[in-house]
Design goal:
Blueprint: E1 6-11, H1 14-26, E2 32-36, E3 42-44, E4 47-49, H2 51-61, H3 78-85, H4 96-110, H5 115-126, E5 131-134, E6 141-146, E7 149-152, H6 153-159, E8 166-172, H7 181-188, E9 192-197, H8 202-210, H9 215-220, E10 226-229, E11 232-233, E12 236-237, H10 242-248, H11 255-261, E13 268-272, E14 286-289, H12 296-316
Parallel strand pairs: 1-2, 1-9, 2-5, 9-10, 10-13, 13-14
Antiparallel strand pairs: 3-4, 6-7, 6-8, 11-12
């Protein structure tokens, strides 16, 4: 499928990566730019870890682990086993193959390369066709104010397994961070077909991207349809803590509630057929589709539905 023009997709990790892969399979590589959340990035065991960026990279390279949704397939765990024997921190699991990514990224960053340059080099080596870019080359860190005080994102998400209730979210470094220049150029240039907000957690995967100075304004002014895909089906998240977090913020989890979260940006919204009764509450034109992506065919079908929705909105304007 090709309607001509560039598609810019904003994405977090597992859920967003499924749609990103679907888009990559139905679009020519040069017509897709995927922008990854880096608010989840952190330093662990002396290494620079970029969880969402790597999940997207592995998915687009066909190297993702279908059992976990993160990390590399065919993974082994000798490093973690040996680390545990020495009394090291094993709460954040790094597979042997995945570890090579973090070691080489850390080496290159310390040598002066940017995160964008490192990512581009990895993508070339792994055969990723579309452009995959971090949201910024500057440091942004998501932190959560919980019932137990402030926690770094990975502490809350992995070590504490999302248990402490969240009261507020902060994106440290975002006000001074610069959006990735190629992303801004794509949004401000001509020939943009659509901006797609993937079905990632709006609070901790998409909003860190939108918190970068000028990014939200560039999306609003891009001149192309902006379409989001709901990460909620039947009042629950397909994966991850989205529904739990919305409840803790006093928001009833629903597909329509996520649409309202993006209300200043959206031209259209894709929600699951099971949530058809909520369509009117979304506040924007809605396309109903099967949004639960179990198979590769599901990913491709949803990608086509999203692009068709964007194209119909473009023709209507």
């Amino acid at each position: 499928m090709s309607g001509g023009g560039l598609v810019v997709a904003l994405s977090g990790g597992v859920g967003g990566a499924k749609l990103a892969l679907g888009l990559a399979r139905v679009l020519p590589a040069e017509e897709l730019l995927v922008v990854a959340n880096t608010g989840d990035d952190f330093e662990h065991l002396g290494l620079a870890i970029s969880p969402d960026l790597d999940t997207l990279m592995y998915a687009l390279a066909g190297l993702d682990n279908p059992e976990t949704g993160w990390g590399r397939r065919g993974e082994t765990w000798s490093f973690m086993e040996a680390l545990g024997e020495l009394g090291g921190e094993t709460w954040f699991r790094l597979g042997d193959r995945d570890l090579a990514t973090h070691v080489e990224r850390t080496r290159r960053l310390r040598a002066g390369e940017t995160l964008s340059q490192v990512t581009a080099a990895f993508c070339r080596r792994l055969g990723v066709g579309p452009r995959l870019l971090p949201m910024s080359d500057d440091r942004v860190r998501t932190r959560l104010h919980t019932e137990e005080g402030w926690l770094d994102f990975q502490d809350w998400f992995v070590r504490r397994r999302c248990r402490p209730a969240v009261r507020a979210i902060a994106f440290d470094g975002a006000p001074a961070a610069r959006p990735q220049p190629e992303v801004m150029a794509a949004l401000r240039g001509g020939g943009l077909r659509a901006v797609v907000i993937c079905p990632s957690n709006p609070l901790i995967s998409v909003e860190p991207i939108l918190a970068l100075p000028g990014l939200r304004e560039a999306i609003r002014g891009c001149g192309a349809p902006v379409v989001a895909v709901s990460p909620i089906i039947g009042g629950e998240a397909v994966k991850g803590p989205t529904a739990k977090m919305l409840r803790e913020f006093g928001i009833l989890p629903s597909a329509a509630a996520v649409a309202r979260r993006y209300r200043d940006l959206l031209d259209g919204y894709v929600m699951d057929e099971a949530d058809a009764a909520e369509a009117a509450a979304a506040g924007v034109p809605v396309t109903l589709a099967r949004t639960r992506m179990v198979t590769l065919a599901d990913r491709e079908a949803l990608a086509r539905a999203v692009l068709a929705a964007a194209d119909s909105l473009r023709r209507a304007t």
